[in-house]
Amino acid sequence: MTTATRNPLSYLHNQIEDLKAKGLHFRLRVLETEQRPVASFDGKEVINLSSNNYLGLTTHRGLRKAALEAIRKWGVGSGAVRTIAGTMQIHMELEEQIARFKNTEACVVFQSGFTANAGTVAAILGKDDLIISDELNHASIIDGCRLSKATIRIFKHKDVADGERICKETENWAGRKLLITDGVFSMDGDIAPLPQLCDLAEKYNCIMMVDDAHASGVLGRGGRGTVDHLGCHGRVDIQVGTLSKAIGAMGGYVCGSRELIDWLYHRGRPFLFSTSHPPSITATCQAAFALLDSPEGERLIKKLWANTKFFKRRLKQLGFSTGASETPITPIHVGEAAKAFEFSRRLFEAGVYAPAVGYPTVAEGKARLRAIVTATHKRAELECAAQILAEVGKSLGIV
Prior knowledge:
The chain is built from 14 helices and 13 strands. The protein is α/β, with parallel strands linked by helices and 399 residues long.
């Protein structure tokens, strides 16, 4: 075989063809406008139910202004990792602001929510330690657990009794123990039983860690997350959040004790080996957190929840199942993955963008569309989307 014809990745062709045969292959939708409730993807204007932009902050005037002013003052990039020359004053100010917001001693910002989770778990645990993890935790938690090389035990989703069973079985574990959960689960939209899990962590001497990505800006006073929403301040050792959903920009953060953050400065590999945020992104996040603590932030959160309740009520009236969702994440359960992907494709042609989710993101046989309502959706847009969902759903025998 000549060098010209050699292709050691040829096996990927067959795997992609298999996805196509099963109706599970997709192509990336290209957004051609701002990230708004009605937006243009691939040349088609659709009602956008696909974004994590909960409060509509991606296009907020105040955040735009903050970004532009930061570029004028600080430039477009930081030029280095945080441990060399990439820690700017604006980075430290944002971290102090987030720590105050979350009512913790300190905070460190990572380049994404994924790296915040994965980098933290891998930094604080090793091969002699134990992780007790909800079975539906986010992929970033799963990867962090694997990277740590700790022993991993999985408890049934939100099943505190099953979690305690594992805690009892491992009560005499010689190493450290971590109990970890999402605050809001990204595929089902349900909320973790955090107070009861904190009870377990305290009873069995576990580190308690929560990934609050989908609760930040959504739940709790001023969007402070599930820890605030469920009254667990002082009981959660590590809080992870995101800057790329309700905050409207990009990145993730970890909040906790000063010693935890100091340790992550030294051992958090994504922090150590990735260039820090551009000043414009950092200033945008500062403006977003300031907004959350203002009357406007309160108004946006109230509108988010009003829209969420309206949309879920309409879907239920139309015969759809949204499962156990308690948040703006609204799964529309279909079951068969190929049918879910076909449902999404037909909806798009009819004017609604609601992406399908199948295996391996969710278990086989539990495929669904994942719709997310935002504060900036108009009631008429949500009603129109519900009617289109009903029409297309009926044509496929889903309702």
